[in-house]
Specification:
The chain is α+β, with helices and mostly antiparallel strands and 132 residues long. It is built from 2 helices and 9 strands, in the order ααβββββββββ. Strand 8 and strand 9 form a beta hairpin. It is rod-shaped. The protein starts with a helix and ends with a strand.
Length: 132
């Protein structure tokens, strides 16, 4: 009978822990949960930056879009967006941490966030310069 009682107590405690964990996780946003648990969702819709300067032809492509569209000042940039500048074009982006990046002429840059596989609390911003 002692082993049955221990099993009941164990199951009760595990259920309580799961309920507390679920209550905590429900307070986090979906995007943060996906990053927290290492989900590398290609559709993770995190705002990463805002466009501060657009000179000439600067275009943006969302991950789920087949085409690049003209980028405007004050437009938001999200995870997995690609920015393409023309021959005499440039753009200045300000990221949510206050840092800035200038994308020069004839460039193609994809902007992504990813989670450090070793230190799961570390989130990294990756600027994949494909051209320029």
């Amino acid at each position: 009978m002692k082993s049955v009682r221990r099993a009941e107590i164990f199951l009760f405690l595990m259920g309580a822990i799961l309920l507390l964990g679920a209550a905590y996780l429900s307070t986090l946003g979906t995007d943060r949960l996906m990053i927290l648990f290492g989900v590398q969702s290609r559709n993770l819709n995190l705002k990463l930056a805002e466009v501060r300067v657009v000179v000439d032809s600067v275009r943006r492509k969302k991950l789920d879009s087949p085409e690049f569209i003209q980028l405007r000042k004050n437009q938001d940039i999200f995870n997995n967006d690609s920015i393409m500048t023309g021959k005499n074009s440039k753009s200045l982006l300000t990221f949510i941490d206050g840092s800035t990046v200038e994308i020069g002429p004839d460039s193609l840059v994809q902007i992504q966030v990813h989670q450090d596989p070793v230190l799961s609390n570390n989130i990294h911003l990756n600027l994949d310069v494909q051209r320029g």
